[in-house]
Target: Membrane protein
Amino acid sequence: MNDRPDRISLATRIRNNFLTGLIICAPLAITIWLTWSFIHWADSWVKPYIPSRYNPESYLKFAIPGFGLLLALVAITLIGFLGKNLIGRSIVGYSESILNRMPLVRTVYKSTKQIFETVLKEQSSSFKRVGLIEFPHPGTWALVFVSTDARGEIAAKLSENGEEMVAVFLAPTPVPTAGFLMFVPRSKLRLLDMSPEEGIKLLISAGLVTPEYTAAATSDAANAVTPPAET
Model:
């Protein structure tokens, strides 16, 4: 009878040690696996286009992981450098004029280019803020990522009452690879102080990983939601 608590205590310690080791090893193993898989994926796309005489693996007896990825990064950087001068802009403009003559290709190219320009633009605020909206009904709040202000026809149709509309992305849990593009009034959007990275962690973990928050909340978020009245 006296040995039972000791056995339970020992089993509990073993379980706790196992869970602690799992918490340490699992993220590390997943990170290494994802990184290694990405490197091999990039190499599989780039290496077939490298001439044999310029590929060091043709002279060595072992593969060089990451060589294709490194070469792709150098090539993309070089193309970006050349695209800023007059000759490079002329070549890009001529190539775009050819693509614009292709009915299906021009639609895909223009849409893709617009997305990359919006996301990668240095001064863009796209997906740099996290907020809350009432969804799917009042009193229930959903986490969203702020995309940009509504523009064009959508802004004209939805802003008839004078209130600005904001485009937000509502991603599902736990895999935020798809979701809904929604346009909500700026006054209905509650901006949060957390970063997009913290918002993604909160979303993927289904609310289990909550970012730290201090009681001294900044007033910048409130000012961004409701602009001050003009005098």
Remarks:
- Residues 219-231 have pLDDT under 50 and may be disordered.
- Residues 202 and 209 are 5 Å apart (CA to CA).
- Residues 129-211 form one domain.
